[in-house]
Specification:
The chain is α+β, with helices and mostly antiparallel strands and 147 residues long. The chain folds into two domains: 12-64; 69-146, Alpha-Beta Plaits (2-Layer Sandwich). 36% of the residues lie in helices and 23% in strands. Strands 2-3-1-4 form a four-stranded antiparallel sheet, covered by helices on one side. A hairpin with a 6-residue loop joins strand 2 (96-102) and strand 3. Helix 1 (17-31) packs across helix 2 (37-44). The mean pLDDT is 86.
Length: 147
């Protein structure tokens, strides 16, 4: 049985000491409290070999969560401030726009496609899309991709 792709969520208090100390050493390095791996392992009283054995396999739960990106196509009325309202809506929902492309408006409408990191949304992605449809000037919302 291949365990390479299996992941487990385990409470910290049941971890073997070497694994817990590896997490602590990684935190010291990431926060800049120490400058070298040697300093980190000495501070937490861990052998270098144990650190190297586990360092690439252990991550805090929040670091293990995957970024969720959706790509959305919008049909917008070509009026001043509509795109600005859409961007404000995304920001208010704690979405992070990664890319944005807008076509030249034709016959009073413009197509805007943007990719958004939804990992910090304060609402579900479904509710986000439904509420986006209600923004004044938004005629159509289509999810064109997810990753």
């Amino acid at each position: 049985m291949d365990h390479k792709e299996e992941f487990y969520l385990i409470r910290a208090d049941v971890l073997p000491e070497a694994i817990y100390k590896t997490v602590e050493a990684k935190k010291l390095i990431e926060t800049g409290e120490v400058n070298t791996i040697n300093e980190a392992v000495e501070r937490v009283n861990l052998s270098r070999s144990a650190f190297y054995k586990y360092k690439d396999k252990i991550f805090p739960f929040n670091a293990a969560t995957y970024q969720k990106i959706i790509t959305i196509s919008l049909i917008l009325e070509h009026r001043p401030g509509i795109l600005s309202e859409v961007l404000k809506f995304v920001a208010n929902k704690k979405g992070n726009i990664l890319t944005i492309n807008q076509s030249i408006p034709l016959q009073g409408i413009a197509n805007v496609v943007y990719s958004i990191d939804t990992s910090n949304l304060i609402t579900s992605a479904t509710e986000f899309i439904e509420d986006l449809k209600l923004v004044d000037g938004v005629r159509k919302v289509i999810i064109v991709g997810q990753s």
